[in-house]
Design a protein that fits this description.
- The chain contains one helix and 13 strands, in the order ββββββββββαβββ.
- The chain is globular, with a radius of gyration of 15 Å.
- The chain starts with a strand and ends with a strand.
Length: 155
Amino acid sequence: FSMFLAKRLDGLVGWGFNMSDGQNIQFIVDYDTTNLRVKSNTGAFSTGAWTHIGVSWNGSSAASSILLYSSGVQISSTVSTDGVGSRVSDSSSPLFIICRNATTGCVSGYITEVGLFNRVLSSSEFGDIYTNGLTQTAGGVALGGMTPRGYWGDI
């Protein structure tokens, strides 16, 4: 699978947001017994076409706490597995954009914006980001009061 965004050390611990099976997206968080995992239905995006994708997670080990978005709309999932055990620490893991690690699992394509937030965004906020993008302001990046903790543009 190809990674859009990951905070993992050598692909072993942390979390990842990736492309799966060509047209699905999934979000995985590592737990010491069973990993938390949610995978979209087929057709979350089409290869060769620009698509806005997103994930929202409140930090819970319940699969129902993960919401996936495509083109500003929440989408359903086919695979949902709750995390079991203790969450594996990712505090020493680097953040990777486009690749699973420094050399492998890379997305073949372009990513124009990545935003990381320290709170759960609502469905309407995902719709706003899809419609308007994340806009840069003199004080950083903001959109209607949403200020990401990290922002990367034209990657």
